Amino acid sequence: MDKIELSSIGYVKREELSNEEIKNHNLMAELVIKPEYADGLKGIDEFSHVYVIFWMHQMTKSSLNAPFSDNPDMPDVGVFATRAPVNPNHIGLSLVEILDYKQNRLTVKGLDAYNGTPILDIKPYPNWPGSKLQVVSKFRVPDWLSKIVE
Amino acid sequence: MDKIELSSIGYVKREELSNEEIKNHNLMAELVIKPEYADGLKGIDEFSHVYVIFWMHQMTKSSLNAPFSDNPDMPDVGVFATRAPVNPNHIGLSLVEILDYKQNRLTVKGLDAYNGTPILDIKPYPNWPGSKLQVVSKFRVPDWLSKIVE
After folding, report:
1. Residue A93 and residue B51: Cβ atoms within 8 Å?
2. How far B76 CA sits from the closest chain A CA (Å)?
3. Does some domain include residue B1?
4. Strand pairing of B49-55 and B91-102?
5. Which 8-state DSSP code applies to residue B149?
6. B31 assigned to some structural domain
7. How far apart are alpha carbons B28 and B41 in whole angstroms?
8. The pTM is what?
9. How far apart are CA B144 and CA A105, in angstroms?
10. Structurally, how many domains does chain A consist of?
11. If you count residue pairs, one on A and one on B, with CB atoms under 8 Å apart, how many are there?
12. CATH label of the domain that carries residue B103
């Protein structure tokens, strides 16, 4: 049970981008789903936004500390309090807007993943495990976040 | 590259609940993180909400169709347009509220996972891969969703 084996359901197709460029939320990316999973997308474009769960396949190291932990101006926080790809399982999570959907391809905006990234899952936004749509607009974040997020 | 191996970082500890009970968002659950990953949680309680990504270990079947696809009153949509655990990779995603944090344990509200579920990752809410916190309060969902979500 402790070892979990997954297979990608497709991959990301986009320009080759730098670390900084990929944070530009206005850039588009294509989610190319394997033909054998294409039927799983039916009706997805009735949602404006979906979560994309992906495997950060280029990441080779892990750390329990935030990447900024060497910076004396930043607090000492753990990797799970960040979005850093050095998490023990290199799983990424993006919330993207759907721009287009054709057969086995979704064109999206806001994906924080490189060209060639294996996709693990797609889920509609927002969450609704409870009895109603779960939109969280009242929340608290740490003060240090304003140092890394404009 | 196509086969991806992950290990759990901990597991869910809570009462044994039925399918229906687990949808009650007011119930609490404990995320028991393995001691070797506990340092990764440092500072997590400065966030009010986190995403929990987990492995739905009890699920043995997969389907590309929504679980309600046999219901003539429901539309023919694919599994990626639903939150159904029959997705090809049985990955689950919950957005939970943090109630308490001690050492390697987080007490949370709103987790859509059973007792014993392996946890794969924890990420702070909201997303911020772009240049600002990404809170999506304007979105579109299909009409059929109102038939399954109160």
Report:
1. yes
2. 7
3. no
4. antiparallel
5. -
6. yes
7. 19
8. 0.95
9. 23
10. 1
11. 271
12. 2.40.30.70
Q: Does A72 touch chain B (CB under 8 A)?
A: no
| Contact (CB, 8 A) for B68 and B98 | no
Which of B143-150's residues contact partners 24+ apart within 8 Å by CB, and which partners?
A: B143/A46, B144/A46, B144/B74, B144/B75, B144/B77, B145/A128, B145/A133, B147/B73, B147/B74, B148/B68, B149/A128, B149/A131, B149/A132, B149/A133, B150/A131, B150/A132
Mean pLDDT of chain A: 91
Instruction: Let me know if B2 is exposed, middle or buried by CB neighbors in 10 A (0-12, 13-18, 19+).
Output: exposed
For residue B135, tell me if it sits in a domain: yes
Q: pLDDT truncated to tens, each residue of chain B (150 aa)?
A: 578 999 999 999 999 988 878 777 788 999 999 999 999 999 999 999 999 999 999 999 999 999 888 899 899 999 999 999 999 999 999 999 999 999 999 999 999 999 999 999 999 999 886 667 778 888 999 988 888 886
- Per-residue pLDDT for A3 more than 70? yes
Looking at chain B, list the stretches that DSSP marks H as alpha helix, in order from N- to C-terminal side: 145-148
Give the structural domain span for A57.
10-148
Nearest CA to B96 out of B143, B49, B145 is that of B49
Distance from CA of B32 to the nearest CA of A (A): 14
Report ipTM (2 d.p.): 0.94
Task: Confirm whether A135 is domain-assigned.
Answer: yes
From the list A43, A57, A93, the residue facing B53 with the nearest CB is A93
The larger pLDDT score, comparing residue A92 to residue A138, is at A92
In chain A, which residues have their Cβ closer than 8 Å to the Cβ of B86? none
Q: What are B141's two structure tokens?
A: 């969902």
User: What are B5's two structure tokens?
Assistant: 């191996």
A5-39 in b/e form (b: 16+ CB < 10 A) is ebebbbbbebeeeeeeebbebebebbbbbbeebbb
